[in-house]
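Quick log. Single chain, no ligands specified.
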Amino acid sequence: MDLALVARKPGENFDTYHATFHGSSIYLIGPLVYDQAKYPNLVNGVPGFGQSMYGDNYATVDYQNTGPDGNVFGGTQGTMSVTDLSAYHKDLESYFKAVDTQALSGNGPIPLIYDYVKQSYPTSSGGILFFTGKVIRVTTGTHIAFADINYPLPAATPYTIPSTFINVPDPNNSSIHYFLQGDKGTISNGHIAYLNGTVYTNGPAIAVSGSYTQVTVGAGDFHSIGTIIRQDNTTFRFDQVDNTN
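-> predicted structure:
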């Protein structure tokens, strides 16, 4: 489903796109980010990431960025509280584990999300349909579209993602950062860094799982996503574009 560009409101300095997807009114905030090194040409199906997404007319979006499939999201039309999402989250967890296992071992094909997550999750009451989709580039219109998660990925141009350092601030404590190491597109280790003024002091290692891509080949901007487990065993997901130079 192609997205249409929405006219900017007074004072806005960003683009908003809209489409009706599975009967729900969904908006995406631009600009769209995608892996230009892996997909240098404009073809249908290139996975992309919007800056944010939301729904209206009682539509709700559960916004979730994931690995090589790009931005995969879930949504429902109606009241979220009566929708059982346990099956969706269980399937999504299985996908995350498969991506981490393949990235660490380097063996076998890259797991794709539509092999784990279904296209729809109807509730037992039958009154609400929880649907999934993803954001892709297309050759028509605004070049941005929503698609079902089994929409095929185009052939990628082989390239090696350079290793990089990733600095993730803790959203609950500005004096705590997490210094992560990215290697070949995978984030699997890191440690706490305590910030005092402008000086960092290294702390203990933490558990982290994630991935990253280079936004522009040869530049220092990297898009990283993943999950960090704090020392108190609470977790949070990060999704950021940062310059590591």
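DSSP finds one helix and 17 strands in the chain.
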